[in-house]
Amino acid sequence: MLDLRLRPSLPAYTSLLRLYCSRRQLPQAQALLSTLPSLGYRLDVVAHTVFLDGLCAAGRFRDVEKLLAQSRADGWEPNSVTYNVYASALCRAGQLDEAFRQVGLMRDRGLRPTIETLNILFDCLCRESKVSEAKRLLEGSDALGWVVDSFFYNTLMSRLFDVGELDAVLELLASMFKKGIPPDACTFTVVIRTLCKSGKLAEARNVVERGGSFVASDVVMFNTLLHGFYAAGNVEEVRLVYEEMLGKSVVPNNFTYCIVMDSFCRRGKFLEATSFLLGSFAEDGFSLDLVARLNSWFVKYGKLREILNLLDEMSRRGFAADGFILTSLITAFCREGYCGSLDFYKEDLNGIVHGNLFSLLEKDERQTMKYLASPAGRVRILFFF
User: Fold this and answer.
1) Do 78 and 93 form a contact (C-beta atoms < 8 A)?
2) Which parts of the chain span the membrane according to its record (predicted)?
3) What is the percentage of the chain residues whose pLDDT exceeds 90?
4) Can you name the residues that pair with 282 across neighbouring β-strands?
5) pLDDT score at 6
């Protein structure tokens, strides 16, 4: 444009300023901002807000303060967007008190907090677990003209659950109904978690049943309830809830299968666990994670024959055991203290993968153990167990 002797507009320079800031080239951005007035441009709030955003992204809050302090002297006035950008950055940096102070300064300048301002403050309060303040802000939403929906309630309810204020979660649910705000599946999931943690499993199950009149029951809601019963040791209810889930045509996922399978193993019903796992196999494959999970139970309780039976049945169905299953088996044995010697299971495991698993174990032990000592191996161990 300059070569063609065309005078760029201020928005064009603002776009260049934004590019500098996005690349963290703040010296170039500041130089451009300082040069433009001498070229006859009157810088507006948009250009300064773009630069302020760049300073915030770099964590240079002192420079932001200087920019705002001399704004009037420089001939521009911050607007609500400017303060929202600054408050949001302060919240992300964990400077909650300073974010609220900036909102106060915003009001002192005669600027009314916008819906975006309230969203930022609410998110900041929840992130910092200032749940009492977040609750007061939410309860005063009508007076502030702040239109809230289930998302905001779900966010606060989740934080209340995290900090252990379980009764407050249920109070917020009542507040939602009172204000006519319809709950969604996420709302009911948080409530189910709360009731399960409080030991109110019957009430949690009732929520799943009655929640269907508001939203379609989904796998997450059922998984939450299943986990609640399993954690409480009520494994018989796990089976009943699972059957109810299927009756409502809710499709299980791997987490569902894992809970049900674990509930069988927890009662020592390994034959039922194996049958359940085999029944979950799809026509085009099976879950390696679930096979590894069940094998870990077998190893833990010394059920080596069950390992043979499972892998034999998989082979009969055309599913060949692979290195992933081999690794998970070695991991399971190592967790039980048998890494030093393979003699313990040599006789029993000999010949269960392509005619000779033990030869594979001996051949690949060094490579597998090297893998298990790696970060990726440790992550996999944590995932399984």
Assistant:
1) no
2) none
3) 54
4) 285
5) 53
